[in-house]
Amino acid sequence: MSDDDDTPETRMARLILALRSQGVTEPKVLHAVETTPRPLFTQALFKDRAFEDSALPIACGQTISQPFVVGLMTQALRIDRRDRVLEIGTGSGYQTTILSKVARLVYTVERYRTLMKEAEGRFKELGLTNVITRFGDGGEGWPEQAPFDRIMVTAAAPAEPKALLSQLKPTGILVAPIGKGPVQSLRRYAGDGKGGFQVEDLIDVRFVPLLDGVAKEL
């Protein structure tokens, strides 16, 4: 492989092609991924793997999700540019940044103060002005800002996340990994406008569990 074949631009182009081949085809989602510098969100040890379509470790025992899963979850939300989106689990801020490029406002909740502070620094570096952060228990959502048009959960809920579903607009959409085991089902809840939901299982995924409370850090 020549040096010209291994530039950040060509590696990103290969990643976008890989996402397309797996079913992430929404142009605005692909553009959001293409214009988000994933190396910024990865630890120094893994920066050479930033353009791989794989999950990578970050601080606090968490991960930055696989780009395919990030793209698929974003696409599954069917976000309109006018939408207010709640994200549960800020993590590195990578998924948050993708959401910020397709939604009007993104409210994001993180239980690890270290991760939140690091993510806030990245948002500032990128000049994002439509992301609002909160250090707190993601399982409780953000009732004061509800209802939301869309909700994304980036950690595995053991069962239907009723508290979060209650914070959706009647025709809103929530996407979350659901299950207690190492493999969960990525599930989409689409509000029917009458208080019920159309539920669809999309793919099997592997996420860290959604934990109660906030982390006690030194």
Describe this structure in words.
The protein has 218 residues and is of the alpha/beta class. The protein has a single domain (3-205), classed as Rossmann fold (3-Layer(aba) Sandwich), CATH 3.40.50. 26% of the residues lie in helices and 25% in strands. It contains six helices and nine strands. α5 links the parallel β4 (105-110) and β5 (131-135). The N and C termini lie far apart (46 Å). The mean pLDDT is 94.
N- to C-terminal distance: 46 Å
From the 3D structure, determine the CATH topology. Rossmann fold
Our count of helices gives 6
Class of secondary structure makeup: alpha/beta
Q: Report strand %.
A: 15-25%
How many DSSP E strands?
Answer: 9
Order of helices and strands: HHEEHEHEHEEHEEE
> Share of helix among residues?
25-40%
Q: Which strand order spans the largest sheet, edge to edge or round the barrel?
A: 5-4-3-6-7-8-9
Task: Draw up the topology in text.
Elements lengths: L7 H14 L5 H8 L21 E2 L5 E2 L2 H10 L7 E5 L5 H7 L4 E6 L2 H14 L4 E5 L12 E6 L8 H4 L2 E11 L5 E8 L5 E9 L13
Parallel strand pairs: 3-4, 3-6, 4-5, 6-7
Antiparallel strand pairs: 1-2, 7-8, 8-9
Features:
Rossmann fold; alpha/beta; seven-stranded mixed sheet; 218 residues; globular; 26% helix
Compact overview of the structure:
The chain has 218 residues and is an alpha/beta fold. It contains six helices and nine strands; from the N terminus they run H-H-E-E-H-E-H-E-H-E-E-H-E-E-E. The radius of gyration is 17 Å and the shape is globular.
